[in-house]
Amino acid sequence: MLVSHQIAAQEEEMATPRQPILRPFMLFILSRLVIESFASDPPLTLDYYSSSCPTVLEIVRKEMECAVLSDPRNAALAVRLHFHDCFVQGCDGSVLLDDTVTLKGEKTASPNVNSLLGYEIIDRIKNKLESECPGVVSCADILTIAARDAVILVGGPYWDVPLGRKDSKTASFDLANENIPTANEGLASIISKFLYQGLSVTDTVALSGAHTIGMARCQNYRARIYGSLGENSHLSSLKSTCTAVEGDDKIAPFDYVTPNVFDNSYYILLLKEDGLLNSDQELYSSLLGIQTKRLVRKYAEDSLAFFQQFSDSMVKMGNITNSDSFENGEVRKNCRFINT
Residues that bind Ca(2+) 1, according to the entry (predicted)? Predict the structure, then answer.
């Protein structure tokens, strides 16, 4: 299988660092990035587990194949978990931690509580890896590999995944509420949150394309379907199940044309003003979106350009590291709890 050869080939290559493209947007954000640029990120490599757990990629791939085969929507769940993890303390597996008497996790934060699912997929992968390679593969790395494989399994691009992350011993409920973009944010706020992570405007538009798969709850698109100007037949059709006051848990696909296929249809729908969330449509319709509008058009016209940039931006996002976890982190035995 081509994908299998590609994944196997990953262990023969070395990761190529990708330098963030910084665009000044807010003074405090720029200052933060400049300061952090002097720190050396802990190294991630493609062959990190080549000796300690050579079957890690095969195990994750097989489990993800089963998950996506049982329900194609599981692909989007895995990708979303990775996104929400990396935007809080870096890609350190903190999003997977359950609340305990001594730790407040991120699962009940506003952007996560009714949005993140699929934790049991990661649990199954972790259990298989603990049987094969006890105490070796971090939950943070599992999330990163699973997201890549999820995209491939629904028709998206392949990319090499640098590995070697450690799991955090902490989580941040507050940062989860502050850092993760929400459904009704304006473009300026969305871009600022990506810039804060060292991700460019181009990364923002490309990574938003992950909404070519997956579903959203009525609670998150209600403001969009009742607040859009003019007549939109698709958005209007959603009002039958998502009323102005009821139906919070009703769901609709971000991309109603090919909801279970990773393609560039998301951007084509934005050109038609059919974005499901206000934050989606802002990429094309905001008066501030001169650059984002150009990129939406580019990816709508050229799926290969989207695939290439999405791959590059996913590696870049996956390389957002938690320096504290590299120094004081661990490899959790159970992704839901720190080791005792």
Answer: 85, 88, 90, 92, 94, 106
